[in-house]
Design a protein that fits this description.
7-stranded mixed β-sheet, 44% helix, Rossmann fold, alpha/beta, 2 domains, Four Helix Bundle (Hemerythrin (Met), subunit A)
Amino acid sequence: MLDQRILPNEEKYLMLRSYEEVADAIRKMVVRGAPAIGVSAAMGLALGASQSVGTSVADLEFDFDFMCKVMAATRPTAVNLFWAIERMRDVIAQAKSEKVRDVEDIKQRLTDEALLIYNEDIEANRAIGLFGGKLIPDNATVLTHCNAGALATAGDYGTALGVVRGAIKAGKRVAVIADETRPFLQGARLTAWELAKDNIPVTVITDNMAGHIMKQGKIDCVVVGADRIAANGDAANKIGTYMVAVLAKQHNIPFYVAAPLSTIDLATATGDDIPIEQRDPREVTHLSDQQLTPDGVGVHNFAFDVTPNEFIAAIITDRGVARPPYTESLQKLCNVLSANAP
């Protein structure tokens, strides 16, 4: 796993040898981004199952259930995590329904499912780029918040940045302005890093500069990712996204959300029902080992906020573009996916 905590200063890969190490890496944001979290969780569970010493299906199921609980406790907001866990649980359930008694066969099925989730994510991101690229005008400057690029997914495209890459592949000239995205600086560190590697023009701004840049007419559209999208189209993304959406609305700039269908949670009616993770206050009070705030002051460190659907011009998925009313359009896209499922 590429350790995203130390980019761009150092490119270091960590070898994770147990499901506990994978869970810890997710929790500590070695890997982050909803699709990447889902893929990592699936692979971590397959790894854990392969190391189970149980000799019966019941033993494996007992161990696997515990592993799933550990994995589910890592990041509460990203629905892809729970979607991937359920995909892996379904493998066990299917094997039981078939009365499979070979434990090694079930372990292999879990590995195959994790690899399938990985490959599906790569295909989904390229589809998002294809659909979303059509919405980006030529010579556009796109504002993005956080990192929803290759680093946040399994492949080399990403979701929000996949839209940018899709537009460029279609022959359009596109530049990106990246909010720094405090406090973890995903925009300044990660978005800028991967776009620079792809020779895509990128400029970093502080989070509190977005309104000024919009007022100057330098932004043509906003594209962000999501960690969970409710049935009504409310979208949870990195803290500060809601602020950007309000500014975009004020300046008549289209605000797009890009995410695979696995990020859509039809069981969650509205954004009010999305759990919002709070992280260690030290992420706010310190920059690396340098303390920024006085001792003893109170700190909020909400990791995400929710953008209400009325601020979102379109939700770009791997199955097409959803537009208001989202309760109908998202349900329709998910129904298409269910109808095509094996």
